[in-house]
Fold:
Amino acid sequence: MKSEYAVEFHDIVKIFPTPEGGQVNAVDHVSININHGEFFSMLGPSGCGKTTSLRLMAGFEWPTSGEVVIDGEKMGRRPPFLRPVNTVFQNYALFQHMTVFQNVAFGLEMEKVTNQEINRRVNEALEMVKLPGMGKRKPKQLSGGQQQRIALARALVKRPEVLLLDEPLGALDLKLRKEMQLELKALQEQVGITFIYVTHDQEEALTMSNRIAVMSKGKALQIGSSVEIYERPNCRFVADFIGETNFLTGTVKEVDKDRVCVLLTVPKQELYGIGFGDLHPGQTVAVSIRPEKVHLEDDNGTQVEDRTGEDNQLKGRVAATAYIGSDTRVIIDLGDNIRMKVWEQNAISTLDPEAYYSTGDAVRIIIPYENTLVLPEDIA
Amino acid sequence: MSEKKPSLWIRIYSFFVYGFIYAPILILIIFSFNTQKLNIHWEGFTLHWYNVLFADKQIFLATRNTLMIALISTIVATIIGTLAALAMHRYRFPLYNASETVMYIPIVIPEVVMGISLLVFFVMIKTTLGLTTITLSHIAFNIPFVALVVRARLHGYDKAIDEAAMDLGANEFTTFRRITLPTIMPGVLSGAMLALTLSLDDYVITYFTAGPGSTTLPLRVFSMVKTAVTPEINALSTLWVMIIFILLVIGQIAQRRRV
Amino acid sequence: MISEQAGEPPKAKFSITRLLRENSTAQGFLLISPANLYLFVLVVLPLIIVTILSFLSRGAYGGVEFRFNLTNYARLFDPLYGKVMLFSLGVGLGTTLICLLVGYPLAYFLAHAPGKQRSLLLFLILLPFWTNFVIRIYAWMIILRSGGLLDSLLQWLHLTQAPLNLLYSPTAVMIGMVYEFLPFMVLPLYTSLEKIENSLLEAAADLGAPPWKAFLRVTLPLSVPGMIAGTILTFIPAMGMFVVPDILGGAKTILIGNVIRNQFLTARDWPFGAAASMILMLLTMVLTLYYTRKAGFGEELLV
Structure:
């Protein structure tokens, strides 16, 4: 380990020509530093640039401008076979005309490793992915999950410094996917190398990663740990993409360091929340309130108290409820067709119907100040 | 697909059409064993004509030529055609459309026209017509067919396996040799088979580019047919049909085996 | 791992490799160059020469006079050769039509055959066509000869009294052409018919159409792509045929193909032959362009 970071993007731009004759910035001025031994995910909807970024690391594409640095070395226009990284492909890309053993051994053959050593390491790799003895089979005789593991073994057997994974679990069914997520994570911790993982499934990214880069339209909007991304999204897109949230539109009234007063459009009311980015009075913002971070109270008709600095309050009527078991999902009508989702945890076990909200009830939503995030509409 | 059984009339009709298709060949075969020379009525069973055939030096020469030309032209055309197919499938380069058009010309133009144009060309550059010119011509019409077949088989080629090979440390040549080529091999072999068949069977283009001294089997058969009708031709035809039939059956069995 | 100065990408040993690697356009161009070069020299160039040749005249001693004129083309339209051209067109159209009529029911039969039988039946149709085509025409020659098999058969059945003299007539040529081109018509038709889903015919029946009407209004129109493909695959080669007329047609039956052949090998009027070739080519190109514009090139047909 001679360098500070495993992989670095220095202001990378990648432009592709479009079939119509124009251009598109698949990667738009992205700079990332990935630490050694980290499980780093690139997350975003399709077309956001995450796969292109991965391919730039692997060497299947070269940047239009900017520098890709791996373990302290600038990659420039180095082809993939000269880079110390290996890739696990989305559709596995196993060599159909070779046996499983030959597939896994291929990379070692390229390194001119002795036959004895190849034997040992291939078997070791197969054991590591829990498929010992599959050596003689052909890829098409294996199930999807097994093929995925062989693809993994084939890459890992070369002991790369960085492993790139391009949505490797996408083709698997739900149950298998969840199992594999845990296995991959365990594997990464066991082997200790850097994993760079591309996915569009935010749950997957949150579960497995040390840090996540949320991407959209070629830009890395936010890079941080799962907690940071979820609890403190820095813009509307990130807050929307990760988990579930409510958005209320409004304009900034007053800014006092990171404490912001927002005048909501509907309902016409002031809220106090934590601000992100450079907010100034008059700016249109989206207030993000996660449904599990509020609680409901019966509205007994008293005035909304001025609870400065602590909790915000909104009044409304229950429009619909759904009892999930662990919690109740309540939709509240705030008036003027604005609705809010609230998830009340069913903390007390009771059959008393009074304990559950029903349609038409007048309620107050109590929103603590720290749970009210004032976000700019989108990072430009 | 449709499960409805076609009407009886259609089935009877089809039976007769099959008869129409097979009758000439069966007649050829039967009469190759006929003692009578004229192919009109049956007189007696004999292998005489086969003896004549095997003793015929010209036929022997013609067969040898045909095989040689077919082999050489197939190998060359397959290599050139496969490279061209790969180029058209994966890359965009200047003159792409022009190249594609040129590739299709030999397939689309009437054989006569291609034949005479080659004749004119060879005479103009003062080349003697002979086996070499025939071979060069065969390569010319084989390249597009090989390219067409290989290109059709390239549809759905998963580029990712080439990338995976490079990712694992193989450079471009090793990737081509170890991954690409083995994967497209069935298509390449198909193309080669087609080229071989076209070359073995070719009459028209060979006719124009052969010149006085050289002859191939189709040419020889044609001249025999024009000069005199002898059951020797029947014998030759029968053998030819038999060999083709055996090869086809072997081909089918080999295919079944692989699957 | 290639070792190099820290921070510098490695310099490739040969700049050609590096150039190719980084430039995929160059790679593609290089791969297609052998084909391009070969075909240019042996196909494009000769065709250009022939085109030029068609505008020249035959010299006094068999050579070529370099005087551009259109006499060759004019000659092609005079009564003598004009008749040949019309005749060729007629034969081409006739062959195509007969193949269509004869082949359609067969294609229908194949399309509706149960799966297992179907591949066998297809194989059986193709099998004879793996033999050399001169041989097949020879077979017809001995069948159609005066006093030959067909005559003997018909006389034995008391259908005719005297030999029919079928050989060396346009009829014989037609029989030979139809025999040759039948599979080229049947296979595309089969492909087209095979794609028609049974549910369409069931829907037609459900809506009150008797079988013949369902055929006319549903099956037939849907099989048109196959008919077009088959027509192109039959008509174009038929126009350029000279072997069949040569063997089965004798001196009386002459098509464009024969004219071309004669000019180049017997009469030695190359410019005139070139002009005839150009006309043939033109017809072919026009038809092919029409088809490719309509339905894309039939690569599937070949596979």
